[in-house]
Write a structure and sequence with these properties.
With 141 residues, the chain is an alpha+beta fold. It is built from one helix and eight strands, in the order αββββββββ.
């Protein structure tokens, strides 16, 4: 009985020591140049992904955050989307036009090794436009 109690106590102790390690969050973050835009009313994207992640790595709180810029070509409408494509499945996009810096939990539970993109659609203004800003996407997993 004492041996069993000692073993159970030891296992509980080890579990308590290693539980925080299993729950530790990690992040990947990428910063890339915004895309050049050559014509009116076309979609132009910057792509973000991280290789080498285990299939078991899933997106967790606080989720996905971004910091993106705005074109200065005199556009009438600028629509900006944050899109996510899992390794298997369809792409999903969120309109972030009114929040150029922000975060979302919409992709939580999805594989962290999926591909993100920031897509712009400009209507009006002068072309081509060569941006002087960068876009950043950060994924917590």
């Amino acid at each position: 009985m004492k041996l069993r109690t000692a073993l159970v106590s030891g296992l509980l102790f080890l579990g308590a020591m290693y539980a925080p390690l299993a729950a530790a969050q990690q992040q990947w973050s990428k910063t890339v140049a915004a895309p050049n835009v050559y014509t009116d009313n076309t979609e132009n994207s910057s792509y973000f992904s991280q290789g080498g992640l285990l299939p078991s790595a899933v997106i967790v709180n606080p989720g996905v955050s971004w910091n993106v810029g705005s074109y200065t070509n005199g556009w009438v409408t600028q629509t900006v989307f944050l899109c996510y494509k899992p390794p298997v499945g369809a792409e999903a996009c969120s309109d972030i036009s009114n929040e150029l810096t922000g975060s979302t939990t919409a992709f939580n539970g999805q594989p962290a090794r999926g591909q993100f993109r920031v897509a712009y659609r400009l209507v009006g203004g002068t072309y081509p436009v060569y941006p002087s800003f960068y876009n950043t996407v950060t994924v917590t997993y």
